[in-house]
TrEMBL record:
Pfam families (alphabetical): rve (PF00665)
Protein name: Gap-Pol polyprotein
TM spans (from-to): none
GO molecular function per UniProt: nucleic acid binding
Composition-biased stretches (Polar residues): 278-291
Gene Ontology biological-process annotations: DNA integration
Region (Disordered): 252-291
Record domain Integrase catalytic: where: 1-132
InterPro entries linked to this entry: Integrase_cat-core, Retrovirus_Pol_polyprotein, RNaseH-like_sf, RNaseH_sf
The species this protein was found in: Clonorchis sinensis (Chinese liver fluke)
Length: 291
């Protein structure tokens, strides 16, 4: 779980990723320490899409958002943080062979929280706590006595320091996001689809129970029924007009030749008005992340 502004992270090893476990971790490891987040953003893992988690979010007043399917870039902060923590954890495991990897998580998190984050220019610990962490390597460094001040003066000074640091962090994050967008746009090439266009949908995994050997990764055709911001589209199977619609990112689509003009019309190709599908647009946007 990662805070979008401070980049403070909580990593909790669990034996299983069922809905009850995930919900319990969110409440006990985050809400109990830092309060209720305004927004909770996750991928579409079964535990995060469960009825239990939706009910907890509704009860606590958390706005739950999610990524589009098979599009990890939509939760890039967590993906990058996971890679960083795994790299630190690998160092610990290689050095201390024979110990369980989960026993190294607390010290891994110390290393992560104390290091300056590239996006903010500050260590997550400083933005979260208002001061840098004292590390084991600082044991031989003399501690400079702080000036004695009253609690009110200390609180005022801490508030001012944190306010200034968070403002700078926001600016740095904005610059980093713009740079990432520029790099992403430079690599991204693809058509712009319009409502009514036919497309194929990329599905790298075979459905449960289906033989992977005969699975076609490009499924379809589907038809675009809603064009949404951030390069996302709502699609529907035209042969099943009452089936659920799907919201997907454009890089999971590719053009499909539309039906020939001389083709016989089919009653199964009827599509309900777009307004009938608009309800799904309420379940996609987000601050706090998790994976």
């Amino acid at each position: 779980m990662v805070d979008y502004l401070t980049k403070w992270c909580e990593a909790v090893p669990v034996k299983q990723q069922d809905a009850r476990t995930i919900a319990s971790v969110i409440v006990s490891e985050w809400v109990s320490r830092y309060g209720v987040p305004v927004i909770l953003h996750s991928d579409q893992g079964p535990a995060f899409e469960s009825y239990l988690l939706r009910e907890i979010c509704a009860f606590l007043g958390i706005h739950k958002t999610r990524t589009t399917p098979y599009h990890p870039e939509g939760n890039g902060l967590v993906e990058r943080t996971n890679r960083t923590i795994k790299k630190i954890l690998t160092t610990f495991v290689d050095r201390y062979e024979g110990e369980r990897w989960d026993e190294h998580i607390p010290l891994c998190m110390l290393a992560y929280r104390a290091a300056t984050h590239e996006s903010t220019g500050y260590a997550p610990a400083f933005l979260q706590l208002g001061h840098d962490l004292r590390l084991p390597s600082d044991a031989d460094t003399p501690v400079v006595p702080a000036d004695l001040v009253g609690s009110n003066e200390y609180a005022r000074s801490l508030r001012e320091r944190l306010f200034a640091a968070l403002q700078i962090a926001r600016e740095n994050i904005g610059h980093a996001q713009q740079h990432q967008k520029t790099v992403y746009d430079r690599r991204s090439h693809g058509p712009v689809y319009e409502v009514g266009d036919y497309v194929l949908l990329h599905r790298p995994k075979a459905p449960p129970g289906a033989p992977a050997k005969f699975h076609h990764v490009w499924q379809g055709p589907y038809v675009i029924v809603i064009k949404r911001p951030n390069n996302t589209y709502v699609i529907r199977d035209p042969s099943q007009p009452h089936a659920d619609v799907q919201c997907v990112h454009y890089n999971q689509l590719k053009p499909y030749p539309p039906p020939r003009p001389d083709a016989q019309p089919s009653t199964s190709s009827y599509l309900p008005p777009v307004s009938h599908t608009a309800e799904i647009s309420t379940s996609n946007t987000n601050t706090l992340s998790e994976h």
